Amino acid sequence: MIYHNASEVDFQLDGVPEMPSPSRVLLTRPDHFDVEYTINPHMEGNIGSVNKEEALEQWKSLRQLYEALGIEASVIPGEEGLPDMVFCANQTLPFIKTVSGERGIVLSRMYAPQRAPEVPFYASFFEEVGYNVHPLPDSVSDFEGMGDALWHPGRFLLWGGHGFRSSIAAYSFLNEILGVRILVLKLKDPDFYHLDTCLSVLDEDTALIYPGAFDAEGLDLIRTVFRRVLYAPEDEARSFFAVNAHCPDGHNVIIQAGCDQTISVLRREQFNPIEVRTEEFLKAGGSVFCMKQMFW
Asked: Catalytic one among 194, 246, 247, 259?
């Protein structure tokens, strides 16, 4: 049930158990957001450069957009000393089991020690809203939640990235506790250190990718499972995080402003791109998808 290449795929999407789409979003206020250290290439040269007032306004606009799309938003405060906590896709992997009805999360084990203290705050939030909390075993060195593990829309099927922030051993554990098919993709470019920077799952049939982030086996796997694969150009993917876009409903795609070529591709394929400004967060190596966590 863990797939590394296209030749191993032994299923059709319509045969994979259905999973409801999450309807709530968790956001973290950028109360202490800044670039205080360098743990990815995008941070280089940006220490101390964040305009905090502008970052707050950009974050508020993103929250308002989710609410305008009819998505219920929950907000937790940022914590002093944790400047990257605003990127709340990374600390957990929420899940729902449609047969048992269990709602749960798998806790992350952050690659960078600077970010490890973020995880307990998200464990507490999800416990308070009725989720079961599953910690990782000691055998898993690193796993960064929905930075690297992406649910296939509408299906109990998981895409898993590894190579920089998440250990491939994490997916054996997820397979064991969730009983889910997992398609693993090796990342090869440090600018695209999380899967959510180079793969955006738009709907059940469509993926937006930056192909240069994957090896040949990964590209074949993506093209085998998705009926439509759209491509973002390198400059927009690398500098403007075009593929860190988020499509919460199969139609509207929230994307960093100025990704003109990617936006044209999305419109051609009948998606509705909605431009937002996340320039302050790009300085730390994150954009729309990094800044939210969807849950049930």
From this structure: 194
